[in-house]
Amino acid sequence: MTPTVSASGLSLRYGRTPALDDVSVRLGEGVTGLIGPNGAGKTTLLRVLATAVRADRGAFTVLGHDPATTAGRQNVRRTLGYLPQAPGFHPDFTAFEFVDYVAILKEQTDRTARHREVRRVLEAVDLTGVRGKRIKKLSGGMRQRVALAAALVGDPGFLVLDEPTVGLDPEQRMRFRELIARAGEERTVLLSTHQTEDVAMLCHRVIVMAHGRVLFEGTPADLAARAAGHVWSSAERDPAAHAGWRTGTGSFRNVGDPPPGAALLEPTLEDGYLLTLDGTPAEVAAG
Ligand SMILES: Nc1ncnc2c1ncn2[C@@H]1O[C@H](COP(=O)(O)OP(=O)(O)OP(=O)(O)O)[C@@H](O)[C@H]1O
Q1: Domain-located, residue 286
Q2: Among 11, 16, 34, 44, which residue has the most ligand 1 atoms within 8 Å of its CB, making it the best to mutate?
């Protein structure tokens, strides 16, 4: 992987809380998923990389630009599309007006070229038909697409998406995944999510964070493989399992250290994630 975004030793404290604790990551073209429990530091990492907040320590570069200098920071911002966790829409704006407003903030001063760009990004997220509608009248899924369109203005090389699939129904989520996959074809996308399914279906790399630290960085297959030999089925709940639940077939699926002779199951990414959070030694997969 040729890294397009590299961060090393990022640390940031809020009072006594280490939101980021010596975080080093490398991203390449395509979609990288960032998963971790509430308070893991995902949003903080995205905000640092989006130059919305500065780390106390550490450094990073985005497509060769170093935000440590004013000029470098400006270049990082020019190459960036950011979809924050709670996009601040003006509800009376139409979809077109909102994206146009973002395009103005992104220094697109030529009105004709800017409007062409606004139409392009709204088309890219399939919102052409409702571009004149007020945002308050759009569904949650459509609003998320307006926010994605705004992030895509100017064709940024680095797209930062903070939990973009939250609150979407399964069909909307599927459509949104399609759009993100398309967006990731020729650029670097970092996507924070609580859905291991988003990662399994969409991401070529995955980073697991907890307590401000990176616990795993590698491919989704590497993460699933961490649980090989640690997932088994049983007729009754196995008290030795770290986690276990009754499945639709009535048998239990257990994750942890199996008893001798257990009926081992093929691990999923979610199994690997659960075991990683459960204190498996921190590991960074090669590549
Ligand atoms: N502005 C802030 N002021 C004080 N503490 C903060 C601030 N932002 C984040 N924190 C704390 O930093 C830690 C990391 O928070 P962060 O929002 O980055 O986690 P997260 O992984 O994005 O969580 P979630 O999945 O719930 O969005 C948490 O303990 C949080 O309470």
Answers
A1: no
A2: 44
CB-ligand 1 contact for 245 (6 Å cutoff): no
Q: For a substitution probing ligand 1, which of 16, 21, 35, 42 has the most ligand atoms within 8 Å of its CB?
A: 42
Mean predicted confidence (pLDDT) in 226-254: 90
Give the model's pLDDT for residue 285: 37
Is the C-beta atom of 43 inside 6 A of ligand 1?
A: yes
What CATH number is attached to the domain comprising 16?
A: 3.40.50.300
Query: Between 111-124 and 140-152, two packed helices, what is the crossing angle to 10 degrees?
Result: 130
Dump pLDDT digits (tens) for 155-168.
999 999 999 888 77
Statement to judge: residues 196 and 239 lie in one domain: no
Number of domains forming the structure of the chain: 2
Paired sense of beta strands 252-255 and 231-234, if any? antiparallel
pTM, two decimals, is 0.91
